[in-house]
């Protein structure tokens, strides 16, 4: 089970390198959770696959390295080093593609006026009338992380509350009551695979508040 994260567009500043951008997020990731999980206070994951596209490989070069990220020789190494620093001990797979995501019509133009045509952030809105954004850099990630515990555990608790006697048509379709209960217990076991302790304490606090 994985949770989906994305940054659309990736918050890369116009004229700045990828290390410059990532250095502004030393403790928090520059992407948002898309799956229906509640984000945890503790940011960690067990494994992840991350894809960054639309960032030129040569854009990270700087004569005098000011951080370990600036000392990396390629964009792939920059992203991999950043992931290992932010998620130590996690298995991280990263890929970098130079081709950006095109946003020409009929793609909806809901972007901020702070974006250039190539989807890079400006310090201030341009003085001229803003043109349509033609492409954007994007980062997407699939993570196996503790946030999945709250999702799976909540699903288990909701299903456990169902009065199966009221769903005769459901079981008449071929599902046996014993099979349903077995699948319910398997769901609970699956949720516990993503439990780290912190999530369990947090769930108990929520139950007490309810």
UniProtKB/TrEMBL annotation:
One Gene Ontology biological process: mitochondrion organization
Reading the lineage from the top rank, the first entry is Eukaryota
This protein's name: MSTO1 protein
Q: Gene Ontology cellular component?
A: mitochondrion
Signal peptide span per the entry?
Answer: none
């Amino acid at each position: 089970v994985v949770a989906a994260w994305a940054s659309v567009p990736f918050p890369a500043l116009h004229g700045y390198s990828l290390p410059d951008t990532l250095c502004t997020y030393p403790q928090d990731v520059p992407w948002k959770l898309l799956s229906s999980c509640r984000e945890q206070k503790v940011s960690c994951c067990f494994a992840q696959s991350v894809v960054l596209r639309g960032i030129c490989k040569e854009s990270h070069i700087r004569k005098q390295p000011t951080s370990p990220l600036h000392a990396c020789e390629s964009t792939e190494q920059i992203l991999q080093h950043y992931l290992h620093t932010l998620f130590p001990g996690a298995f991280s797979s990263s890929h970098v593609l130079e081709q950006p995501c095109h946003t020409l019509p009929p793609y909806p133009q809901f972007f901020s006026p702070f974006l250039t045509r190539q989807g890079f952030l400006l310090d201030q809105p341009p003085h001229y009338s803003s043109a349509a954004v033609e492409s954007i850099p994007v980062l997407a990630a699939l993570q196996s992380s503790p946030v999945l515990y709250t999702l799976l555990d909540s699903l288990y608790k909701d299903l456990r509350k169902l009065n199966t006697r009221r769903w005769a048509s459901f079981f008449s379709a071929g599902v046996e009551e014993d099979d349903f209960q077995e699948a319910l217990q398997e769901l609970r076991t699956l949720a516990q695979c993503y439990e780290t302790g912190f999530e369990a304490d947090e769930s108990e606090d929520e139950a007490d508040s309810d």
